[in-house]
Design brief:
By secondary structure, the protein is α/β, with parallel strands linked by helices. It is 55% helix and 13% strand. The protein contains nine helices and five strands; from the N terminus they run βαβαααβαβαααβα. The protein has a five-stranded parallel beta sheet with strand order 2-3-1-4-5. It is globular. The mean pLDDT is 96. It binds adenosine-5'-diphosphate. Adenosine-5'-diphosphate binds next to helix 1, helix 2 and helix 3.
């Protein structure tokens, strides 16, 4: 099973993707986590993306796509995976289709959370890129670049909207309940 989690920053994608991946024994593939690992290890890629992430800008597609393509070819990905934070742009979505085939995704889970809840959650999280300016920028980029991907996947009839407010366990159950058997 290959799943994709979509939703604005602060929607809880990372938390829920981790829990659903555990429940279904899938690999959790988070491009944000991967970039943060590169930054903390000081790799060449990390040095390149550090300032971009602090501003809340998007890492260039070319870097992101090649990192993702390597990741989904690793052995643990053969059991299936959840993509969390990828694709974020149309070229990334097209690159994913090219890599795995346009009919390979079982579901696209969209976590639905209102904007005031998002901003409150992000500002209380305290990550290096959770400053007010970066948060505002990430929300703007989400609306401009990422939200349109819902319409990109809509014709495939695999989009599942899930209310992202409530107890963490409850939201996980909602997601599991909406996935194909
Ligand atoms: P959030 O849930 O707050 O959006 P993520 O961990 O998903 O956080 O991403 C953090 C940052 O990593 C993004 O703001 C961006 O700079 C970079 N990033 C992650 N995924 C991508 C991607 N698919 N394309 C471009 N940049 C990305």
């Amino acid at each position: 099973m290959k799943l994709l989690f979509l939703g604005p920053p602060g929607a809880g994608k990372g938390t829920q993707a981790e829990r659903v991946a555990d429940a279904l024994e899938l690999a959790h593939v988070s491009t944000g986590d991967m970039f943060r690992w590169h930054v903390s290890e000081g790799t060449d890629l990390g040095l390149e993306v550090d300032a971009i992430m602090r501003r809340g800008d998007l890492v260039p597609d070319s870097l992101t796509i090649s990192m993702l393509n390597d990741r989904i070819r690793r052995p643990d990905a053969t059991k299936g995976y959840i993509l969390d934070g990828f694709p974020r742009t149309l070229p990334q979505a097209e690159a994913l289709d090219a890599a795995i085939g346009a009919d390979a995704l079982s579901a696209v889970v969209v976590l639905d959370v209102s904007e005031d809840v998002l901003v409150a959650r992000l500002l209380s999280r305290g990550r290096a890129d959770d400053t007010e300016e970066s948060v505002r920028n990430r929300l703007t980029l989400y609306k401009a670049d990422t939200e349109p991907l819902i319409s990109f996947y809509e014709p495939r009839q695999i989009v599942r909207w899930v209310e992202g407010v409530g107890e963490i366990e409850e939201i996980t159950e909602r997601i599991l309940g909406t996935l194909p058997q």
